[in-house]
Amino acid sequence: MTEFKPLVFSGVQPTGNLHLGNYLGAIRKFVALQENNDCIYCVVDMHALTAQLVHEDMPTQIRSITAAFLAAGIDPKKHIVFNQSQVPQHAELAWIFNCVARIGWMNRMTQFKDKAGKDREQASLGLYAYPSLMAADILVYRATHVPVGDDQKQHLELARDIAMKFNLDFHDKIVPTGLGIDIKVGEEPVHAYFPMVEPLIDGPAPRVMSLKDGTKKMSKSDPSDLSRINLMDDQEAISKKIRKAKTDPDALPSETEGLKGRPEADNLVGIFAALADKSKTDVLSEFGGQQFSVFKPALIDLAVEVLAPINAEMRRLMEDPGHIDAVLRDGGERARSRAEKTMNEVRDIIGFVR
Ligand code: TRP
């Protein structure tokens, strides 16, 4: 049984400022994965149109996600960094996937239901088709592994369903051309053109919660800027936000058990642990019994130590948009040539004349 060559793909939308949750939950994982994998990281600008067509400053948003990737340590020469709209093959494959996916599948997507809200008639057709474009992003490279947050798991399951239906529906065209690979799906051997993508979910990365409410996720859409640490925040802003973060009156416990029912304490300890690359248990063995008046200054020092260099590098990169654009163009070119190879095969499998 052969296997698809492992390839990591992930995407980040250029909407709103990146915050600590995006960094710890996604970008830092992207950086770590480069070590042992071939990786493609994409600024998904076409996805950004699905909720809102007109954006205040689309070019700056695209460049700032790219700057964050580079500042965090993603190497755009060894891997590929680009913005989605430079590779029109994503949209082309998405059209084919729109014809593979069933309306019943799309209707089950919880993110669509949440984002469309009550007035579904007024949601864009793009928002509805969002997961199909996401499947195309990944599968146009026949990528096998996708680091994402928990909230994207359902979209990856849909990508597998799409891949599987394509593989089965075109089985008669795939096998004779020798384009597919024998893979195992559960116990079943299947001849597949598209791989069954695997999510790479969480691992040690914490769910980073709001600094103002430990039961809500840190979010770029929270009206209070004090609820989050943005990657573009300077030292002063970072320390002010941590100083003002909500806590409870008790000292920190010595065991993680003691964090139960204390969401704000749990969140700050989790952030400390993630930034220090330690477990919460380690953090509590150091700070158990201490008041927040001791813990917060230590957290501020650590957050500044980790984030300030990223922040400074992002600012430096943002001063030279021409350089960022050149990185995206170069990545776009390399991505396009890989995507076009897939599309030629897909066109042949479907029977389009070329
Ligand atoms: N939907 C993803 C998110 O909101 C972004 C995304 C688009 C993506 N295409 C992707 C993530 C492909 C992983 C792979 O986080």
From TrEMBL:
InterPro entries: aa-tRNA-synth_I_CS, aa-tRNA-synth_Ic, Rossmann-like_a/b/a_fold, Trp-tRNA-ligase, Trp-tRNA-ligase_bac-type, Trp-tRNA_synthetase. It is found in: Cytoplasm. Its EC number is 6.1.1.2. ATP binds at residues 13-15, 21-22, 149-151, 208, 217-221. SUPFAM superfamilies: Nucleotidylyl transferase. L-tryptophan binds at residue 137. A motif ('HIGH' region) lies at residues 14-22. This is Tryptophan--tRNA ligase. It comes from Rhizobium rhizophilum.
